[in-house]
Amino acid sequence: MMEPRPDTRTRFDAILLFSFGGPEGPDDVIPFLENVTRGRNIPRERLAVVGEHYALFDGVSPINQQNRDLLAALREDLAAGGIDIPVYWGNRNWHPYLADIAQRMVADGHRRVLTLVTSAFGSYSGCRQYREDLDAASAALDGALEFTKVRLYWNHPGFLDAAASRIEDALESLDAGARPRARLVFTAHSIPTAWTASSPYVRQLEEAAALLAERTAADLEWDLVYQSRSGPPAVPWLEPDIVDHLHDLDTAGVETVVIVPLGFVSDHMEVVYDLDTEARATASALGIHLIRAGTAGTHPAFIRGLRALIEEEMHNQPALAAVGEPWPNPCPAGCCERPTRPASDPGPVDTAG
């Protein structure tokens, strides 16, 4: 049994929805990518190549609108549940910036902020880096704000229920004859393999994928693959890549694939470009029928799950809801440590925008 944490019943006076951010017009793209890659000496030419992905969508990433929708749904659900607490939204890499929102919260009289991060799985870029940004924002305000991040929720029933519902919707859209022969393919953002030494990223993805496959399509084969790598070829990243895997499935005679973007809470550029554009074009060229399941987004089960996570912290409850063992909060010492990159690997360029 987990030991109770310190009393938090009067600890929080605001909630922060904290996300990655993304550009909202052509003029935003390069400045946004410069923010993402600051200090990593990535040539502007490389940023221009990535910027071409955004140009296909008029320079607009879907993530900010997804966050606005999530913010509205969360506020509505909290109010309906009798939780009277203001909810703010801030980003790491684009407007509204965390630093600006932190100043606004101080001006509004807040001090103790419970933070929901739009990343369900544990990795440096998906967890610890957000914690570091919160620490930096607090330090910049001389400690005027105290941030507490909710635990990782990759195996929380709310997240899993929403993902299962999206998978079931995708499977139901298939013709009756195609359904028994379909292949589930779960995807997540690739990261350098060296980063996985201190993080639970791969294990959590494997367990979540297994849970969802058993729940939604126990009769179908499934795979876990990766996408959106942006490092040099000489540096190992998690594989197989989704596009390469589609070629392998074609060789194996698979005709129908349901892609599940498991590693993404909402649609990002990596979803609408790497999956809906690039992977779909590859599948079409191979003659594979490809369906992409939706992300959790504002699914009611996901929103209820976020409220449960908030209530867990506000009412000083141990981690009550999880399929399997809940992830501890705070994270274990040394978890998802900042990776040391070789000079040849500047890291991801376009992660989660």
Folded structure, characterized:
With 353 residues, the protein is of the alpha/beta class. The chain folds into 2 domains: 14-154 and 299-314, 3-Layer(aba) Sandwich (Rossmann fold); 157-292, Rossmann fold (3-Layer(aba) Sandwich), CATH 3.40.50.1400. 40% of the residues lie in helices and 12% in strands. It contains 10 helices and 8 strands. It has helices spanning 29-37, 44-55, 63-80, 98-107, 124-140, 157-172, 201-217, 242-251, 269-286, 300-314; strands spanning 14-19, 87-91, 112-117, 146-149, 183-189, 222-227, 256-260, 289-292. The protein has a 4-stranded parallel β-sheet with strand order 2-1-3-4, with helices on both faces. Helix 7 (201-217) links the parallel strand 5 and strand 6 (222-227). Helix 3 packs across helix 10 (300-314) and helix 8 packs parallel to helix 9 (269-286). The longest helix is centred in the N-terminal third of the chain and has 18 residues, at 63-80. The chain is globular, with a radius of gyration of 20 Å. The model is unreliable at 1-9 (pLDDT under 50).
- Structural class, by secondary structure, is alpha/beta
Total beta-strand segments: 8
CATH class of the largest domain: Alpha Beta
Strand percent estimate:
5-15%
The shape is globular
Architecture of the largest domain in CATH? 3-Layer(aba) Sandwich
Radius of gyration: 20 Å
The helix count comes to: 10
| Order of neighbouring strands in the sheet with most strands | 2-1-3-4
Runs in which pLDDT lies below 50 for 5 or more consecutive residues are 1-9
**What is the CA-CA span between the terminal residues?**
38 Å
Output the helix-strand order: EHHHEHEHEHEHEHEHEH
Whole-number tally of structural domains: 2
Helix proportion = 40-55%
